[in-house]
Structures are given as C-alpha cells and as structure tokens.
C-alpha cells in the first residue's frame, strides 16, 4: 500500500515572512514568496521598474543617468574654475 504524502506539507514547510505587524509587533505568519524574505502582502515583487516603464516617469531629469551626468558636469566646471584661478594668480594671462 502506498503512503500518500500530504500536498500541504510543502506549504507548511515554506519559509515564513520576516515582516512584523505594526499593531501587535508579532511576526507575520504567511509563507514568504520564493526568492524573497517577505510575503506578497508585505511587498514581495511589488513596485514598478525604473525608467519609462514607471508610471511616475515624467521627463527623465531625475533618472540615475541624468543625476550622474550633472555631477560629472559640475565636477568639470569646478576644475575649470580652479584652473582659471591658478592661471590668474600666476599672472600668465
């Protein structure tokens, strides 16, 4: 005679969500989503992707690439001003 395994055994053995309730302070008892440490109700797999796929995307001036470019430009301008001051102070104009 075959021993039937309980199909819910995998669900019971699944890792649990690591989030805590704000109200009670007790840990969430739901199973965590595969590859995440939290359950679907506490944010696993949630949120939108970056870039134009995000519904809050408006013009691209706050993207990571744009911010890095502005930082690089500001560094170059700062270096140019320092170089100009050095040239002015040495009287080589």
Q: Any idea what the shape is?
A: elongated
Q: Main sheet? A: none
The low-confidence runs, each spanning 5 or more residues with pLDDT under 50, are none
Give the SSE order as H and E letters: HH
Span between termini:
100 Å
Radius of gyration, in Å, reads 28 Å
- Count of helix runs: 2
Protein name: Periplasmic glucans biosynthesis protein
Region (Disordered): 1-31, 44-65
Organism: Ruegeria atlantica
Which secondary structure elements does this structure contain, and how are they paired or packed?
Blueprint: H1 9-13, H2 64-90
Distinctive features:
2 domains; elongated; single chain; 93 residues
What does this molecule look like?
The chain is mainly α and 93 residues long. The protein folds into 2 domains: 1-46, no CATH class; 49-93. Helices cover 34% and strands 0% of the residues. The chain is built from 2 helices and no strands. It has helices at 9-13, 64-90. The radius of gyration is 28 Å and the shape is elongated. The mean pLDDT is 87.
Short description:
This is Periplasmic glucans biosynthesis protein. Helices cover 34% and strands 0% of the residues. By secondary structure, the protein is an all-alpha fold.
């Amino acid at each position: 005679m075959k021993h039937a395994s309980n199909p819910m055994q995998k669900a019971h053995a699944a890792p649990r969500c690591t989030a805590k309730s704000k109200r009670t302070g007790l840990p969430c008892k739901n199973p965590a989503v595969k590859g995440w440490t939290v359950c679907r109700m506490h944010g696993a797999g949630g949120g939108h992707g970056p870039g134009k796929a995000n519904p809050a995307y408006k013009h691209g001036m706050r993207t990571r690439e744009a911010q890095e470019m502005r930082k690089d430009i500001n560094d170059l301008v700062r270096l140019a001003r320092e170089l100009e001051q050095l040239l002015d102070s040495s009287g080589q104009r």
